[in-house]
Write a structure and sequence with these properties.
Elements (H helix, E strand, L loop, with lengths): L1 H27 L17 H8 L5 H11 L20 H8 L3
Helix pairs in contact: 1-4, 3-4
């Protein structure tokens, strides 16, 4: 029984780890300057981004592209410039954003 509990706990930690790691990646890459989980800043909230892309099977790819190359006109008048610094982390960030 102890082994089963330990395995279940380890599996839960592995599933949760990307969410924690991506929040750290968002801070590391400066995403939190313009975005927040629930409070609108210069850019939309991560929750709003996830809601807008919900149901889109290509959402992670679209967000990865927007992070790396910038976007314009999707959430208002203020464009998001390309985030060259975040390009390598863009797929992980996109995946995390969609969990919000």
């Amino acid at each position: 029984m102890k082994t089963l509990t330990a395995v279940a706990l380890a599996a839960a930690m592995l599933v949760a780890a990307p969410a924690f790691a991506s929040a750290d990646l968002a801070k590391k890459n400066g995403c939190a300057v313009c975005h927040d989980a629930t409070a609108k800043k210069m850019g939309p909230t991560w929750k709003d981004i996830a809601a807008k892309n919900k149901g889109n099977k290509d959402a992670e790819k679209v967000l990865t592209d927007a992070i790396a190359n910038g976007s314009k006109g999707k959430y208002g008048k203020i464009p998001m410039p390309p985030q060259a610094k975040a390009k390598a982390d863009a797929p992980a960030l996109a995946k995390w954003i969609m969990t919000n």
